[in-house]
Amino acid sequence: MTIKIVMDTDPGIDDAAALTMALNDPQIEVKLITSVAGNVTVDKTTKNAQKIVRFFNKDVPVAAGAKQPLIKEFEDAARIHGESGMPGYDFPEDLPKPLDKSAVEALHDTIMSSDEKITLVPTGSYTNIGLLFSEYPEVKDHIERIVAMGGSLGKGNMTSAAEFNVFTDPDAAKIMYQSGIPITMVGLDITMKALITPASLSKLETMNETGKMLHDIIIHDGDNSDEGIAMHDVNTIFYLLHPEAIKTQPMWVDIVTDGPAIGETVGDIRGAYHDGKTNADVCVDIDAQAFNDWFLDEVAAITKP
Ligand code: RIB
Ligand code: CA
């Protein structure tokens, strides 16, 4: 029984790595990929998603999404992901055309036509998700779970309070967290622990064609330290396949939508202020070694056609 997912992405180096895992793991069926403005503009995130699909010769549709957040001014992360969003590797240029429908239309059609509930995996800002739930609320009953990279119970990475995906579009994040759909919050609390170590990175380079491609783009990721490079978005796929390696805590999560803490995810960590109600399972710890081992094993198992 495969997990049927839709990935809503802003490739983005770590998005590209997450797409690689999702497109190639036999336990996952990617029904659709949608792009959104985030790390770079949506024309670039769309093209980057197509490059990954083409690199693996997968027959998965890509639909272009929102050009800017619902209300907040768009601010990219090109300083982290480079001007192209996915530097360092010469991908094939003969790309398949994106669907001639918007991400929201494609999400609606894919979700409503699926014979099984879909798991939504957003790894960029949640603008497309906010638009989808506003325009087509009926899709909510056809979504199994949202496994979203974003947020933090601790420090942010855009401000001391806010993580990039939520900071980019806090109003869309608020719509998502108020949707009533089960959510797994894959935030910086674990993605800044499960770093790809220098040792893992050097193994990738000589492993196979996929490892070489990932190595060549990951070494350009600005989210790095001596300990390793953060592969934030890949943690969503790791969670889907190995939830036993991640500790979660159910709690109510609110989104700050204005003021100096805009984009903060505020967790009711003691369950004291929402009558015991919760709206998310927040990832609070991860086996970082298991993540590195899994990352290498997944890539080693990929044989490109
Ligand atoms: O804060 C990390 C998130 O912002 C990741 O999704 C990364 O790709 C960027 O979009
Ligand atoms: Ca991303």
TrEMBL record:
<dbReference type="InterPro" id="IPR036452">
    <property type="entry name" value="Ribo_hydro-like"/>
</dbReference>
<feature type="domain" description="Inosine/uridine-preferring nucleoside hydrolase">
    <location>
        <begin position="5"/>
        <end position="292"/>
    </location>
</feature>
<dbReference type="GO" id="GO:0008477">
    <property type="term" value="F:purine nucleosidase activity"/>
</dbReference>
<keyword id="KW-0326">Glycosidase</keyword>
<dbReference type="GO" id="GO:0006152">
    <property type="term" value="P:purine nucleoside catabolic process"/>
</dbReference>
<keyword id="KW-0378">Hydrolase</keyword>
<dbReference type="Pfam" id="PF01156">
    <property type="entry name" value="IU_nuc_hydro"/>
</dbReference>
<dbReference type="GO" id="GO:0005829">
    <property type="term" value="C:cytosol"/>
</dbReference>
<dbReference type="InterPro" id="IPR023186">
    <property type="entry name" value="IUNH"/>
</dbReference>
<protein>
    <submittedName>
        <fullName>Ribonucleoside hydrolase RihC</fullName>
    </submittedName>
</protein>
<dbReference type="InterPro" id="IPR001910">
    <property type="entry name" value="Inosine/uridine_hydrolase_dom"/>
</dbReference>
